[in-house]
Specification:
Number of helices: 3
Structural class: mainly alpha
Pfam family, one: DUF3008
InterPro entries: DUF3008
Largest sheet: none
Distance between the termini: 17 Å
Number of strands: 0
Protein name: Protein of unknwon function (DUF3008)
Helix content: 40-55%
Number of domains: 1
Shape: globular
Radius of gyration: 11 Å
Length: 61
Amino acid sequence: MPAKSAAQQKAAGAALSAKRGDTPKSKLKGASKSMVESMTEKQLEDLAETKRKGKPEHVQD
């Protein structure tokens, strides 16, 4: 499942880093904080590997 926005891709990258132990979970903010707990490493990889080119910075729901 590719990321829908650059912000979502960045949050997934931060959450993936914390899940792998490269970044302390206490450093996470906002969406990445909940992503690390609710998503698997594979799901985070899928979102984080999305290319940002052509993606909007934020998407309105």
